Amino acid sequence: MQPQSFHKTWKAIVSLATAYCLFLNASVSCAYGALVSAPQISQGSASAQERCDQLANSPDDMANDGVAVAFDKIQVSESLPLCQEAARLTPTPHYIFLLGRVLLAAQRDTDALEQFKRAAAGGYAAAMESIGHLYAAGGPGVPKSDADAAKWYRKAADAGNAVGMNNLGFMYAGGRGVTQSYSDAKAWYSRAADAGNADAMYNLGSLYEHGRGVPKSDAEAVEWYRKAADRGEAPGMNNLGFMYEHGRAVPQSYETAAEWYRKAANAGNAEGMNNLGYMHEHGRGVPQSYIDAAIWYRKAADAGNAQAMYNLGYMYAAGRGVPKNDADAAAWYRKAADAGNADAMNNLGFLYERGQGVPQSDGEAAAWFRKAVDAGNILGMNNLGSMYEDGRGVSQNDEEAVAWYRKAAEAGYAVGMTNLGSMYALGRGVPKNDADAAAWYNKAADAGNVVAMNSLGYMYASGRGVAQDYGQAAKWYRAAVALNDDAAKISLGALYQNGLGINRDLDAAKALYDQAATSSDPQIANYARKLGDNLRVSEEQTAASVAASSPAAAVRPSDSSSDSGLGAVFLAGAALLLLLGAMGHTDVNDAQGYSDTQQQQNSRNNDCMFLSLGMASSIVKSVAGCPF
Known about the structure:
Layout: H1 4-23, H2 45-56, H3 76-89, H4 93-105, H5 109-121, H6 125-137, H7 146-158, H8 162-174, H9 182-194, H10 198-210, H11 218-230, H12 234-246, H13 254-266, H14 270-282, H15 290-302, H16 306-318, H17 326-338, H18 342-354, H19 362-374, H20 378-390, H21 398-410, H22 414-426, H23 434-446, H24 450-462, H25 470-482, H26 486-498, H27 506-516, H28 522-548, H29 551-555, H30 560-580, E1 599-604, E2 617-622
Antiparallel strand pairs: 1-2
Helix pairs in contact: 2-3, 2-4, 3-4, 4-5, 5-6, 6-7, 7-8, 8-9, 9-10, 10-11, 11-12, 12-13, 13-14, 14-15, 15-16, 16-17, 17-18, 18-19, 19-20, 20-21, 21-22, 22-23, 23-24, 24-25, 25-26, 26-27, 26-28, 26-30, 27-28
C-alpha cells in the first residue's frame, strides 16, 4: 500500500500540473483527453475535487487518505456533477476512478467501465479491481466474463491492490476464470490478509474451518475470524459467534455467541440477525423470547436472507411471537423458496396439501415437494413418496413411492425408513418381505421414530421377520410409551395383562388403557376405553367367582385366563395397530420447523460492492421438526 505521505506529494504535483494547464488556457486534460460531458460548476476546481472526494472516496482505494464512502451510500444526484467537474479539471487516475464509481452507482455500467479503463491505463490499481468486478458480475452493456474478471483482478493484485488479491483468491477457490485451486486461493488470501484486507482474513478462516487447501483447524479458523471481526468484518463476527455457540476451539458459551451475533447484526449482517433470532427463540445466551426472535428474523428477511424468510414463515405457522397466520406463513415460505431455500419449498408443499393459507391443491403440493427434492431436501423425498403411494397430485405408483422412501431412508431420515419398512411389510412396490420390514423398522426405531418402535414391537410380538420375543416387544413398546405414543400404551397394556415378556400386572395394564383412553385420536381412545372396561368386568367376575368357591380355590393361581385373554386382547391390539398404521404407511408429510438438530448452511456475504465476495460464508442454522 502506498504511504500516506506519497499521496499528499502526488496531490501537490497534480495541483501544480493543473494550474499550469489552466494557465495555458487548456479546457481539458493535458494528458487524458475529453471526459464524460459535465455541466460547469460555479465553484472552483479545488472545491469540486474536495467535494468529489467527500462524496465518492472508495474504501478500497489504496491511494485514498480521505473519508471513505460505502458504495451504497453514494448520493448520485449530488456527487455525479461534482465528480464530472473534478475529473474534467483534474483528470488524474484518482478522479477518473471516482467518476467511474459514481457512474456505476448510477447504474451506467458501460460509462463506468470506460472511466475505469482510462484510470487503469494510468496505473490505478483500484480501477483495475473495479473492472474485474464489472466482468465478474456482468450487467447491462458489460457481458459477464470470469476469464476477464480474473485477468483484471490479477493486474490489480500485481499492482499491490489488496482487494484484487482477495478477489483473485475467490476466483481460484471457485474455479472461475482460472483452474480451481484452494492452494492458490490460500496464497492470494494470505497476501491480501498481510496487506490488511479483512475479507481475506475471513476467507482464510473459512479455508481452515473446512480444510480446503490447508489442514483443517478450528483454532486457525477462530484466529482468522477474530482478526477479521476486529477489523469490522461483520461475517467474521457472525462466524466467530458460531464457533462460540458450538465450542469449537474456544470455550462453549451461548452468551459470547449471542454477543458476536449481535455485533454482526448491528453491523448489518443478515446472517447475524437470523442467528440472533435463533438464540432468542431458544433462549440461548439471551432471554427466551419468541417476540424478539420474530423481530430479528424479520430484519434478516428484509435484508434478503432466505433462511430468515423461512424462519419467519415458521413463526407464523406455529404462532410464535406473531399471531398464527397460515397465509403469512405461506407468503414467507414462498419468498424463501423463490430465493432457493429447499426447506421452504417442502413446507409450501405441505401447506398446499393441507389447504392451509393457500387453496388446497395436491398438484401444487407434489410440484413443490419435487422442487424441494431437486434442491436436495430429504423431507421432500419422503413426502413425494407419500404422494406417489396415495396417487395425490401424481399418478399412483407404488414403485415410485418405494424409490423416494428409499432415498429418504438412505439419507438418514427416520420417517423414510419407517415408510420403506411398511412397504416391505405390505408388499407394495417391492416383494413382501417381513425381514426387510423389520430391519428398516429397527433402523428407524434406533433413530428415534416412535411409529417404527411401535411397529417393531408388533414384529417381535407376532414373530414376523424376527424370532418371536415378547421381551423385545415389551422393550420397544415401552420406548414408544416413553415418547407418549397412545397406540403403544394399548399394546404394552396387553402384554402386562397377559404377562408376556414382563410380569403380569393388571394395575399397570389398566393404567395404560386409561392413559390411552384420553388420546386425541378417537379410534385409539374408544378402543382403549373398551379394553379397560372389559378388564374391569373380567376382574369383577373373577372376584365374584372366587368369593363363591372354596377357600382353597381362592389361593390357587388361575392359569385359564392367560391364553384366552391373549387371544381376546393382544390380537385385538394388533388389529388396532394395523388399523392405525403402525404396520402400514406412516403417511407423514413433514413441515420443516425447529428442533435442536442443526444443519450448517452457507450463504455468501457480498458486503463490498467491489467484489470482496468472500469465498465461504456465514453459517446459518436450519433445523427440522414439525409444528403442525
